[in-house]
Each structure stands twice: as C-alpha cells, then as structure tokens.
C-alpha cells in the first residue's frame, strides 16, 4: 500500500527507541555490556498511545502498524474521511490537548506555513516526560534547537528523524552526538 515503506521506517524507529537500541549499540561499539536497571528498563509499547499527526497515506500505514502492536492511536487530520484506522480522530486545533496524552508522536503531515515548527519548545513541553518523537515527513516540522534542548535535558526521551532541516545534518551537528536520537537517511 502507499506509504508502507516510510511507515516501516517510522515503526522501526519507534521500536528501536522503545527498546533502547541506540544506547545498546553505543555500549556494543565501546565493548561494554549495558545492564539496564529494572526501573530503567524499556517499557513495552503495547497499551501506549501514539499520536499520528497527518493521517494520509503514510500516517494511515503507521496507524495500522501501531494498532497491530496493540497501541492506542490518536490521529490528527485537517479533513478526515472517516475510514482512518485510529481510535480517535481530531482536528489540528486539538493538538495542545492531545500531546500530553501521547507517549509517542509520529509526524507524517505536509510542511506548510501552518505546520512549520509544529513541534516547538512549547509543544515538546506538553508531552509526558520521556516521550518519543518520530519525524518521517519534513525537517521544518520540528524546531531543531528545541528538540536538541529537550533531548539533552531528558525531558524528551528519544527521537528518530528520517527528515531534518533543508539538508543532512552537518558532520559537527549536535544532532549527531545525541545518544537518544536515531538519524535515518531518506531514500532518494
């Protein structure tokens, strides 16, 4: 189906982050065993809530995969058609009410003047502590400086970016040094 390839990346990123794979891979490269404390062990995604912003072809595929993982799916779409595979569908204006309910946010919406920096410092602060963000749409949807600050502070637990600013992050970009961030390169 349309959008499945990108949705696969979104769900793979979500699962890798949920299971602390970035930290485990760092430990592996450093030849150390990462023993996670029981209270810091990754939670299963089953029963967690994912907020899919942009329930078009990609967002619909993400929602289907998330439901297969027994996740609760909240959708945001300007013009819903009633056939979206979500538990709840909302208008974009409801975003401030939805962000506090989501352990995960998947961005699959178009980049417009209305969605530029949709996830800024204020929006990221509304997420529950430790939440994760997956962006498979466009780098301009997230305020990169706010994302870096939220990840560095631990307020945001993790992020996976298949889309960054106008180009790939520079070799010295702070994004490349974050242990709780996955950078994916989109297929050309």
Q: What's the arrangement of secondary structure elements?
A:
Blueprint: H1 4-18, H2 21-29, E1 49-53, H3 57-68, E2 72-76, E3 88-90, H4 95-98, E4 104-107, H5 121-126, E5 131-135, H6 144-153, E6 156-161, E7 181-183
Parallel strand pairs: 1-2, 1-4, 2-3, 4-5, 5-6, 6-7
Helix pairs in contact: 1-3
Question: How does this structure look, described?
Answer:
The protein is α/β, with parallel strands linked by helices and 188 residues long. The protein has 6 helices and 7 strands; from the N terminus they run H-H-E-H-E-E-H-E-H-E-H-E-E. It has helices at residues 4-18, 21-29, 57-68, 95-98, 121-126, 144-153; strands spanning 49-53, 72-76, 88-90, 104-107, 131-135, 156-161, 181-183. The chain has a 7-stranded parallel sheet. The longest helix has 15 residues, at 4-18. The two termini are 19 Å apart.
Number of strands: 7
Described by strand count, sense and barrel closure, the largest sheet is: 7 strands, parallel
Sheet with the most strands: spatial strand order? 3-2-1-4-5-6-7
What structural category do the secondary elements indicate? Answer: alpha/beta
Radius of gyration: 16 Å
Number of helices: 6
- The CATH first-level class comes to Alpha Beta
Tell the overall outline: globular
* Beta content: 15-25%
Fraction of residues in helices?
Answer: 25-40%
């Amino acid at each position: 189906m349309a959008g499945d390839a990108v949705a696969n990346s979104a769900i793979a990123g979500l699962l890798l982050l949920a299971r602390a794979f970035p930290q485990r891979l760092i430990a592996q490269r450093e030849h150390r065993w990462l023993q996670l404390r029981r209270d810091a062990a990754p939670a299963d995604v089953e029963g967690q809530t994912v907020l899919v912003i942009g329930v078009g072809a990609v967002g619909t595929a993400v929602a289907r995969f998330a439901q297969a993982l027994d996740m609760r799916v909240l959708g945001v779409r300007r013009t819903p058609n009633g056939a979206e595979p979500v538990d709840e569908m909302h208008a974009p204006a409801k975003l401030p009410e939805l962000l506090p309910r989501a352990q995960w946010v998947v961005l699959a919406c178009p980049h417009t003047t209305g969605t530029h920096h949709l996830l800024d410092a204020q929006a990221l602060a509304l997420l529950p502590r430790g939440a994760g963000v997956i962006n498979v749409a466009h780098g301009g949807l997230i305020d990169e400086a706010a994302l870096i600050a939220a990840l560095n502070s631990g307020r945001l637990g993790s992020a996976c970016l298949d889309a960054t600013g106008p180009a790939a992050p520079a070799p010295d970009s702070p994004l490349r040094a974050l242990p709780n961030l996955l950078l994916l390169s989109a297929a050309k």
